[in-house]
Amino acid sequence: MSTSEQGVIAVAGGTGGLGRHIVEELVEDCKYKVVVLSRTPNPSLTALGVDVRPIDYTSHTSIVKALENVHTLISCIAAGGDALADVQIKLLRAAEAAGVKRFAPSEWASDTQINTNIEGYFPKKAVIEELQKSKLEWTLFMNGVFMNYLASPRGTGHLQPLKFVIDTENRTANIPGTGNEPVVMTTVQDVAKFVVGSLSLPSWPEKSGIIGDLTTYNHVVKAAERITGEKFKVEYRSLEQLNKAIHPDAQSIMENFYTQVCIAIAEGAKGGFVFEGTLNKLLPHIKTVSVDEFLAHWWTPSGIGKSK
Ligand SMILES: NC(=O)c1ccc[n+]([C@@H]2O[C@H](COP(=O)([O-])OP(=O)(O)OC[C@H]3O[C@@H](n4cnc5c(N)ncnc54)[C@H](OP(=O)(O)O)[C@@H]3O)[C@@H](O)[C@H]2O)c1
């Protein structure tokens, strides 16, 4: 299929953290007409030339109308709990009705088909089950942990700042497992490049693994210590300790979310945060930022990001 036939790309949740990076990369790439589906107007995206189409997830007709002429729909929605499945399944039904060809659901982390224990990802699995029954072509983008969190709070781009495992600013680390388990980390900017690159692939693989850097948390700490010139206060939480930290009576599936992600990381390959770099192989011209490069950019005392 030619690029002109794939001309209209819609990003649901394109106003958010990851979505906005993908939208900006699409705008810079200039090959496609860019549509954002949003529940509210977004003048800053409109000013970039993006067609921001209003969407009411309670109305099938409204979603079908918003998807008019769209070839590929990329979901970057991050609704809490069951709403994540609910709105995406509505999007999927409307996409089928509107004649959309390709759909990428909101995955963007681990291989949710391998990992069965992160409750916050259960709604993502429900969407995959519906996709498997549909006639749409689909792919699951997986990128591991966003590397940008290593530069929280300043280097997270449009993402909400988050100090996850490593708090580079305060030189501390709370590492799941032994710290030697492999984990994929990718900058959100590199994810956006791969997503845009994948649009011109003649067919989509079911799993679109993106590897910015295949690393370990022990490596990250060593690199951060070398680059900042300061020793980190490092603590480890064993799988046993992490499992004990799970609240059995959690009020919401998000209450145990970060602990369950840490368990998945501590489980290594079984946890799903390591996977094949399918898109790295299919799009070898895209060069990724490594953990060492990223940390040096943000935390070298005299560097662009400056350490303090
Ligand atoms: N791998 C990682 O380290 C990592 C980290 C963070 C997130 N993620 C994943 O990346 C994806 C995007 O996350 P994000 O942090 O970029 O998201 P976000 O900025 O929090 O939200 C993205 C968009 O979701 C839409 N949204 C929120 N609640 C909604 C609802 N109830 N119904 C419909 N739309 C709703 C909003 O769009 P409108 O208001 O414009 O409609 C919002 O802009 C998610 O799948 C998330 O799990 C991965």
UniProtKB/TrEMBL annotation:
CDD domains tied to this protein: PCBER_SDR_a
Domain NmrA-like: start-end pairs: 7-253
Signal peptide: none
GO molecular function: oxidoreductase activity
Keywords from the named record: NADP, Oxidoreductase
Listed Gene3D superfamilies: NAD(P)-binding Rossmann-like Domain, UDP-galactose 4-epimerase, domain 1
Annotated family: Belongs to the NmrA-type oxidoreductase family. Isoflavone reductase subfamily.
Protein name (database record): NmrA-like domain-containing protein
